[in-house]
Write a structure and sequence with these properties.
alpha/beta; seven-stranded mixed sheet; four-stranded antiparallel sheet; 13 strands; globular
């Protein structure tokens, strides 16, 4: 079985495993206060072209999302998200479990529209009983989105303007950030994200690390006492060195971006082959997530050799699936998939 159902099915890049082995018996302080975490944080500051950011390392995306939002929101405040957002549909109500409502808005190709966020906030404050309702206090976006689409600078700047108008924090989930940065037509960059968002994170779990996300904070109020929040949410890893070491290895010489380009290039090859063969797509994605529509009979045949993520039923005879490449996807596996797709 060749698995195209996710981008975290493999372990870690061999360089990370080798570095873990090399440093296995080095003694370090715990809880992220070691030399490897300091090195990784400094590399990230350099990539973001900013010395005015705090960097913290957490284990996974859900933990990063709930820790950031729990730190950012007061008990009566909520976070605005697209109705397809990860925090809205794929995190078992973790944000709500922290006491904060997720305020969902309809998406456009998986993304939030600034105009919709502005309308929600205006409607809230235009209501004479606004203090009886959950206060919108943050905006959550992810790039790539759950549908593989990528925000543009123009879209994020529009969201930033709305956030500034209504006093909202702008938070970008970057679990697959590298794949978005490698996408054709992308105009985002780490320096832009560091100067435009209040907080974002660089994903490692889905991008070549064994596990880990690097949270980057610009907002001064959010920086304060953030480590208390990490500890209370169970995120302060005693062997924090394991996180810092992985990000230092991924980022010090561009490996992270090379691996991202690899995944996207293979996804584009699959997309091109499907397009040439006349297949339709649920959505036009420029990243490592592709959403082709197959007849049920063909999907049943392909499922004998390949694992995909089921997305939705399109009509009585067809379904959309997600084909996901990763940093470790092999070219020969992609070539085999393309060959089998062309055979119909």
């Amino acid at each position: 079985m060749i698995r195209f159902n996710c981008d975290y099915g493999e372990g870690a890049h061999p360089r990370i495993l080798a570095r873990l082995q090399e440093t296995n018996f080095v003694q370090t302080p715990g809880y992220g206060e070691d030399e490897y975490c300091r090195e990784a944080a400094q590399i990230i500051r350099g990539l973001c072209k900013s010395d005015d950011i705090d960097v913290h390392f957490l284990m996974g995306g859900t933990q990063a999302n709930l820790t950031v939002l729990a730190a950012a929101l007061r008990p009566w405040e909520g976070v605005i998200s697209a109705d397809t957002g990860h925090i809205a549909v794929h995190e078992t109500g973790s944000i709500e479990a922290c006491g904060h409502k997720v305020l969902c808005l309809p998406h456009e190709n998986g993304k939030l529209r600034a105009a919709d966020v502005a309308r929600l906030c205006k409607a809230h404050y235009d209501d004479a009983s606004f203090e009886h309702m959950v206060k919108p206090a943050a905006v959550y976006v992810s790039s790539p989105s759950e549908l593989g689409t990528v925000y543009s600078r123009e879209e994020l700047l529009a969201l930033r303007a709305v956030c500034d108008e209504y006093g909202l924090l702008l938070f970008l989930d970057g679990a697959r950030l590298g794949y978005g940065l490698a996408a054709p037509g992308n105009d985002l960059s780490l320096p832009f994200l560091a100067s435009t968002t209040d907080v974002f994170y660089i994903g490692g779990t889905k991008q070549g690390a064994l596990f880990g996300e690097a949270v980057v904070i610009r907002n001064a109020a959010l920086k304060r006492d953030f480590r208390y929040e990490i500890k209370q949410r169970g995120g302060m890893l005693a062997k924090g060195r394991l996180l810092g070491l992985q990000f230092a290895e991924l980022l010090r010489d561009g490996l992270y971006f090379d691996l991202s380009r690899h995944a996207v290039q293979l996804a584009m090859a699959i997309k091109a082959a499907l397009t040439e063969a006349g297949y339709a797509f649920l959505i036009d994605s420029p990243t490592n997530q592709q959403f082709p529509i197959f007849a049920d009979e063909q999907l049943s045949r392909l499922a004998q050799s390949y694992a995909f993520s089921y997305q939705c039923r399109v009509d009585e005879k067809r379904s959309a699936v997600r084909i996901c490449t990763s940093w470790a996807t092999r070219e020969e596996d992609v070539e085999r998939l393309i060959s089998d797709i062309r055979r119909g």
